[in-house]
User: What shape does this take?
Amino acid sequence: MLFGEGEMKFENLDILKLDRRTFLKVAAAMGASAFLGTYKADIVNALALAETKIVWLHGAECTGCTESFLNAAYPDVVQAITKLNVNVAYHETLLAQQGIFVDGRLVNTAELNSEILLEELVAEGGYVLVVEGAIPNGPDGTGNYCMIGGHSFKEMVRKAAEKAEAIVAMGTCSSYGGVPAANSAIQAITDNRGLAFTGTDSTKGILREVGIDEAVVNIPGCPAHPDWVMLTLASIILGKGVPDLDRYGRPAVFYPDHTIHENCPRRGFYDIGQLDTEFAEGHCLWKLGCKAPVTHADCAIRLWNNTLNMCTQAGSPCIGCVQPGFPDSTTPFYVEIEKVPTLVGVDINTIAKVAVGAAAIGVGAHAVRRIAMKEE
Ligand code: FSX
Ligand code: SF4
Assistant: This one.
């Protein structure tokens, strides 16, 4: 038995290779605290690090990624902070410090004033920088469409990135621009960017704009799964380094070559062509606009909300939120893939009919769809 008592080889375990269930088994068999404690020893012995500081900045976004992060389990945030010796030194949603005024009085210490705290942390350097939210470049390259405490977010990101040991983009917004960078008249002016990419374009990231050439780990998702960021941060903190990234800068272990569709709990209905045309009928959501067949993430294996559920299982078509082109490339959300021109550019039903005659739905169409689908 793989996880029988006394048979596990904890020393050689690569936690990034574990799927959620295995991770839970490992944590349960060893006890979450002992499990994380093992790795804490790694940090202390291998890296001689007293603590790892995290500086977490928020730009143009909804803070859903932080909400997701706070819902992490095994490790949860408290375990991560205590057992991995993480110091979330700056996080605008969580920190106690306020701005330059507290109760109407001017304050000028790092204990009270978040602006001074951030300045001090950046001056010290040596932290992992997590950025949540897109970075406005507009108007005209000034970045002034997102101002925090009198500074543009673009400038804050530049300064913080310069002194960071590692940079993680948390969520689709900071990875690729996401919802704030969706095609619109407003985006034409705000010019919202991701850190290293904007959409699929790696020449349009804000870091390049400000002359920084640091590698960025992208953890897209709107919001990102808490495990994805927790395990990535753990890997960096534990000295296991940055995980292997795909061509869009995503850890391949969480955003694999195969799509969510491959492991969807409704997949059996797809294979026999039982495709719902109304919500809550209980079968495949393809015709209701499911984008999981072109979306690369481990949602259907890892599951969400502490392994409770995931979008298609709950009856919601996947909207492709981890994809670099999201949301432009996967909208309209509730229109089937072959009718979304930005995604495929062809009507697969037409091709399927030509290719397989009357069997336009089912295995024949499935084969054609597999050929016609492409990423983005
Ligand atoms: Fe974006 Fe995350 Fe979507 Fe929101 O911050 S990825 S809008 S869930 O919160 O950045
Ligand atoms: Fe595939 Fe979506 Fe249907 Fe699931 S619901 S089988 S992911 S098309």
In short: The longest helix spans residues 32-47. The mean pLDDT is 82. Residues 56 and 259 are 30 Å apart (CA to CA). DSSP finds 15 helices and eleven strands in the chain.
